[in-house]
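Quick one: co-fold with adenosine-5'-diphosphate.
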Amino acid sequence: MIQLKGLSKAFQTKTQTVTAVDNVSLSIDEGEIFGIIGYSGAGKSTLVRLLNKLETATSGEVTIEGESITSLKGQSLRSARQEIGMVFQHFNLLWSRTVAENIAFPLEIAKQSKQERNKRVQELVNLVGLEGREDSYPSQLSGGQKQRVGIARALANNPKVLLCDEATSALDPKTTDSILALLTDINKKLGLTIVLITHEMHVIRKICHRVAVMENGRVVEEGPVLQVFRKP
Ligand code: ADP
Ligand code: ADP
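Sure, here it is.
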């Protein structure tokens, strides 16, 4: 589904070269929940930015369903980006728009008609359990509800992959559990591939099938969660 082959990203600063991602090769299967864990500075954010092409790799390649996204530009890059739904730590909602309008936003950009948008928004509201909150503003929602909006918006254009970047790091433990349960539910219901980036081991333990551990830009361990986090 997603293949990273010898992926590297180096940043040149005034005094040195920082290799944020260092020769990473990974294979993420269709329909799995794949976790990427590492301490601050391990290279996780840079990896995310390589996956959604906000950053260009120094070397190596990312392919999604066999198609290389590494050298895409213009319209083909924009359509490749639509294949990846992004969920953020701080939700990145539009604060002057309602729940329904936030979820409809990517559909507007994709030039869907009002009628199509309304139908899709209702499906997504039901999927994430926000019935009755369609006309609320983000400031009127709890953190967990805001993240449900973030997830619905990320799913609006039917992406092939949901990329969650520290999606529960701003939430309390109980809310974290409810968002993880929602992600598991979406994974099962839609068979959607989910890539989950976090520094929290309990998040990985709770919902991931496989995990890669990053340290200093490298993947130092990879495999089924039960195997990698085996209790001694
Ligand atoms: P994480 O998300 O795991 O905290 P990052 O990907 O943010 O890790 O950072 C990995 C390393 O790359 C760090 O040493 C960081 O300082 C460095 N880095 C990230 N972005 C840049 C940049 N734009 N310029 C220079 N160094 C960077
Ligand atoms: P929370 O109640 O979840 O803490 P905040 O109001 O603190 O939400 O804002 C969270 C993030 O949203 C911050 O990064 C902030 O900069 C951004 N933000 C706040 N207001 C707006 C706005 N009107 N438009 C766009 N972004 C905003």
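If it helps, The two ends are 33 Å apart (CA to CA).
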